[in-house]
Amino acid sequence: MNKLAHGIVLAFFGTACWLIWAVLQLPAMVRLKGQGLQLPAFTRFCIGLGTWIVVALPIVVTAYCLWVWIRKGENRNSWVAFLATATAALLFVTLPSIVAIYLPLVNALNHLPAQ
Questions:
Q1: Torsion angles phi and psi, residue 113, rounded to 5
Q2: Which contacts of 56-64 are long-range, i.e. CB under 8 A and separated by 24 or more positions?
Q3: For the chain, what is the total number of helices (H) and then of strands (E)?
Q4: Burial class (CB within 10 angstroms; exposed 0-12, middle 13-18, buried 19+) of 22
Q5: Alpha-carbon distance 95 to 24, whole Å?
Q6: pLDDT tens digits, one per residue of 23-60
Q7: By Cβ atoms counted within 10 A, which residue in 44, 58, 75, 96 is the most buried?
Q8: How many CB atoms within 10 Å of residue 76?
Q9: Which residues fall within 8 angstroms of residue 100, CB to CB, at 6 or more apart?
Q10: What whole-number distance in Å separates Cα of residue 84 and Cα of residue 31?
């Protein structure tokens, strides 16, 4: 049961990381007519670093799950601790990503011509 729970948490974690990666692609789509795309520095930083983090996290989590699945039945790690750690990692990656995707939108709204 513990191995199955680790697998379910891994599947949801991988899906969440893919969704965060997709969200990080959104700022490049904010364009104003007649103006070039100029992303804020924090957004460029989060897109650059966030892509590597969102790729590295599932690799590390998959390696941990493989280690749990291969080990013998003695002294198993709880899936609840794994779930809490995975959720905390997602939280620390998602919050700056949300700020980063809203910055270009706010910047675009501030540069709209007055009508």
A1: -70, 145
A2: 57/13, 57/17, 57/89, 57/93, 58/13, 58/14, 58/17, 61/10, 61/13, 61/14, 61/86, 62/10, 62/14
A3: 3, 0
A4: exposed
A5: 12
A6: 888 887 776 666 666 788 888 898 888 889 989 999 99
A7: 58
A8: 12
A9: 24, 27, 42, 43, 45, 46, 47, 50
A10: 38
Share of the chain above pLDDT 70, in %: 85
State both tokens at 12.
Answer: 């949801």
Tokens of 15: 């899906």
Phi, psi of 37 (to 5 degrees): -80, 120
Q: Which residue has the tokens 């270009």?
A: 104
